[in-house]
Fold this sequence. Notes:
- The complex is a heterodimer.
- Chain A is of the alpha+beta class.
- Helix content of chain A is 66%, strand content 14%.
- In chain B, 0% of the residues lie in helices and 54% in strands.
- Classes of the chains: A alpha+beta, B mainly beta.
- Chain A binds chain B through residues 86-88, 90-91, 93-94, 135, 138-139, 142-143, 146, 149-150, 153, 155, 157, and chain B through 4, 13-14, 19-22, 28, 32-33, 35, 47, 58-61.
Amino acid sequence: MGLLYKIADPSEALIISGWRAHHGPEGDAAGLGFKIIVGKGAFVVPGFQKARRLSLDIHETELPLQCVTKQGIPVGVKAVVIYKIADNPESIANAARRFLEQMEKMDSKVHNVFAGHLRSIIGSMTIEEMIRERDKLAQQTRESAAQEMQRLGLTIDSLQIQEIDDTTGYIENLGAPEAARVAKEARIAQAASDREAAEREAEATALKAAAVSASEIKQAEAAAASGRARAEAEQAGPLASATAKQKVVVQETEVAKLQAAQREQELEAEIRRPADAEAYKTRTEAEGKRDASIASAEAEAKKTRLLGEAEAAQTKAVGEADGEATRARGVAEADAIKARAEALATNSSEVVQQQVAAMLPELVEKAASAFGAIDQLVVLNGTEGVGDTLGQIIGTGLAAMPMLRQLLDEGGKQSPSGNGSTQPPRETFTARHE
Amino acid sequence: MSVVTGAIGFVTGRVAPGTIGEVSLSIHGGSETYYAYAADGTEVIETGARVAVVEYEPPRTVRVTRL
Lengths: 434, 67
């Protein structure tokens, strides 16, 4: 039976219990009933002492948890806690008394305890505190878990919340105002820059256009001035020559006027005056002639008229006389004829006609001789005048003439019938003189 | 005699009345964290302040005072 020498690792604690393995005076119930060796070695008497190793390694536990924050907002939290058995002898004693034989179950037991602690930790914090204030989280962890951790002999090296899952959108809405504000400012800045850029561009364009137009105006003015000067220079020559020509033409016109006047005068003297004189002479001659001829014609006419009148009167008188005589004779004879006709109404008309025919040449001769005395017949009022005149001439002495003529004609044509109807005298004389 | 008493450390979790703070002590060749209260019960010691352990309450609590 030899001694065993056991050596504790730095992350181990040797728990030696048994014969003379205690801290404190022997037999003291208040003392530690076993020996804790940390980082050293110790002899262990087999059979009389028992040595156990208590791991002081770090442990890690994940804590997924659905809980409610201080404001009552349900969150899904995923936390990680790193813990170990503390290194001071008191903690090791506490832990050894609890976990020495159940090292592998320590994790699950501690996990359950931690879950409860985490629930109370989150329930005492708002989401903003959880996200933003890590010190608060650590403080809450201490306040919540310190007593129990010390009883268990454990120490929490770190407790961190990995994820906070918010089903109500609280966390999103936490950031929404800020995100909106930032977006708004970005847009305002963008719009302001755009507007400024556009203003500058517009200014530049306007200035450019103004410069271009000013230069074009200047160019146009210069071109116009030079064009004007050139036109004046070009026109100066023709203008002068035209002026000179105009003067020449004016003078020539004057000359022509004078010449024309002169010619007119000449014309006046040579031709028109004589022509006028001629014309005047001729006109006067003609007038004289006309007057003379008119006068002569008038005289002639008058003479003729007078002559005719005289002759007519003469003839008329003669005729009248003859006519009277003839008429008397005729009337007598007509009466005679008429009586004879009446007496011979039933008699043969041929006898009457014979009688008339026998007397007719004489009557005709008388009528013709009256007309034969007229040399020239001037008809002064046309057909009617002729008729009137002849009517006058004949009517006085030869009233029966047409009647007799007609009788003769009818007798010649219609020998069997031979009626003694009288028809109105036709103006057969007028037809001849037409 | 515990090695914790009189140890020098600094606050890692604010020490204030009504809440449990935390200090990190240089002991055992390394650093260990202990739950901490103010020694006089009213002092407020913010994170990072140097403290000294006045009293040790096993297993894992100390009473500190500002250094």
